[in-house]
Amino acid sequence: MVVIASLLLSSFVISAQDNTLNYDVFYKNNVVGNMQINKMVRDENVYLMMVSKVHMKLITSFRVHIKEQSQFNKGRLMYTNVYREVNGKVKANQKTTAVGDAYQIDSHGKTGTISNKSISSNLILLYFYEPVQMHEVYSGNFQQFVGVKPVGEHTYRIDLPDGNYNFYTYKDGICSRVEVHSSMYTIRMELRA
User: Fold this and answer.
1) Is 3 domain-assigned?
2) Structural domain containing residue 35
3) What tens digit of pLDDT does each residue of 71-96 get?
4) Rounded to whole angstroms, how far apart are CA atoms 191 and 179?
5) In this structure, are residues 125 and 72 in contact, taking their beta carbons and an 8 Å threshold?
6) Structural domain tally of the chain?
């Protein structure tokens, strides 16, 4: 009986650490897609997966499918992959993998090495944790660190290397809203209640 109770308790603790966030994607106040982010915690590993599908019309129609996966072990990024298709064509396939004390990057088959600085947070992890007193975060898409600036109560701005920027807003430590500002459009993601 003690063994059964222990197994039930351990499965509850594991499932209590798992979390799924669902967002609606808006363009000009119309829902144009959705995004789901899953977090699983197993022992000292945190696994994250984000899947987003957006269909919107600017001058022409765009269908964007994004899939991002990350694994952290003992708070250190071990692997991340950002895959993005636009209208069926691969636009990004960026991998970052921990190798010894450094990281190997792969972008469309071209490889390189980046800083031996340990990566402890990335953009997908920001959906689950407010970046209080955090000054930078790793972007798997750009394969470099980007700055995090508080701009209001529970709101942070992240400037991206391509000149675009995002605002992340938090409620109870979870990201409740993201505004993506591009030179061509502005979209927002709202956490479903």
Assistant:
1) no
2) 20-191
3) 999 999 999 999 999 999 999 999 99
4) 12
5) yes
6) 1
